[in-house]
Amino acid sequence: MLYNQFMKSYLSYFLLIIISSVSLSSFSTQLMQNPSLRARIHSQLARLNPSLRCETVFSKTLPITTSPNRRSTRGAPRGIESKNYLEVMVQEYSQKFSEVIKIEFDLPYGHESDPKSFYFLKNDPYEGPDKIKIYKELGVDGSGKSSPDKISTWMEFAKNYRSALDRRNINPKDFLVPSLVFFRITAEDKKEYKTIDPLSESEKLPQGEGWKLLNKDIEFNLPFSVILSMMREGKFPLLDALHDTAHFVSFLRFPEFTYYLREGMVKNADPDISRGFKRRMYWLTEALSVLDPDGATKNQDFLSSQKRSTDVRNIKIIEKELTKMAQDSESKLLAYSYKLARHFESQLRDISGGESNPAEKWYYLSENFKMTAKDLLSEDLSNARGLGIIGELSKTYFEDGPVTLKANPKQMTNETSTFSFNTFVTSQKLLALILKKDKEQILTDLNSMSRAQALSYLIKYTSRLEYFLTLPPFTYQVWAQAFLKADLNPSDPLSAALLTVFGSNIVKNYYLGIGDKRVEP
Predict the structure, then answer these.
(1) CA dist., res. 363 & res. 383, Å (int)
(2) pLDDT tens, 373-427?
(3) Which residues, including other chains, have CB under 8 Å from residue 510's CB and lie 6 or more apart?
(4) What is the DSSP track for 244-305?
(5) Which residues on adjacent β-strands are paired with residue 297?
(6) 320: Cβ–Cβ under 8 A, 6 or more apart, which residues?
(7) CB under 8 Å to 514, separation ≥6 — which residues?
């Protein structure tokens, strides 16, 4: 009886938050402004319990719900001992996690006309099958036609993750494991956090009044200090968000990367945390795909098949050769540039959480280029209207132009999106396709950019991707250890490679070394 009462109240609480709050959650940032999608979330959650009925009371810091059957405060319900209340809440949160993840899979990530999030998982052209395999290990069966056949509860997900570590002979103490996040509002009106791995620390549920379980619609982007503290303890937050599940898919896919990610967070003490470190950490954990460290032979074979040198050469030499190729046969350059982009895409591995969520990765790419996600996946340019962004991106990459992407509300994330390999290679691929399609001297798809300018940019893109393929691929260990240095020197081999591809001063000034302070425009 008591459990049922709590379930009704907690589901009511969650329903009102998800409908009324505006958060920076990767999912709700895109969905919560759309009334029709909010209504669909409302109707799906309401089916869980048709008798849901409550009112909302808004406080300065936290939405709180009341109902005729129960009175709530910022702490535990009156008359119920705090720890028992939290144990019940953990059980309810675990079940609710399953229901919310299913809803997110069944809804479009961005616009209402976009495909379901599950569609992207099934159709991610290179990484999808491997991600589906890991999801199945975690109790999310992605073999269904239009939605997953099964979604695990939070507790099942965490237990399946532990079993997956056992099968890989990984000690959880050296790794990152799912964690619940508790919070309360202090007397100073600030949030205090505690993180618990319920599979090994069930006895450590926070004591005292006011503690609640955090969900993504209260706060999704945790403060850096909280994340840093969690990762040093070998924990990583698993909130009720598809984005968070993707982090754990990434951790299992790339255990070497995860091990050195954890190690790097432990090694860096608070005084060492610089602006550059924070930006590199964000890039590393949220928005980075890297070349497969085991792909050297495939890269060499591809270049040989295209009659290109496999030696590491100065970028100016490559540009000169490609310019000559364009002069001799423009169609040959376009064909090679397109094939190179497709090969490079096929070798990218989604090591970060944002890129590991296919809906998130492809949605933001499509937003960048003002295409529908389906059209981008199928390389259909017939409905494209905003490809002028490629010219703006090219100026940013090659001429120190400003960052212009508006696909995410955070400026730092815009930078990271701009300088991701996914955005760079997509720019090259689309530019090659436009030049194949448009035979006019002035390219209307590119905001009247001249054909000569477009070809010049394409040569710069192509030369840089070719250069990167000739390098011995960097291991996941190198990526993690380099990015998590307190001070990453521009002469570091990985830094030198990044500065060759992304020559902009933004990468040099903000992401390498200790990082400059950003001056807001």
Answers:
(1) 16
(2) 889 999 999 887 778 889 989 999 998 877 766 655 555 567 888 899 999 999 9
(3) 275, 276, 279, 415, 516, 518
(4) HHHHHHHHHH-HHHHHHHHHHHHH--GGG--HHHHHHHHHHHHS-EEE-TT-HHHHHHHHHH
(5) none
(6) none
(7) 274, 275, 276, 277, 486, 487
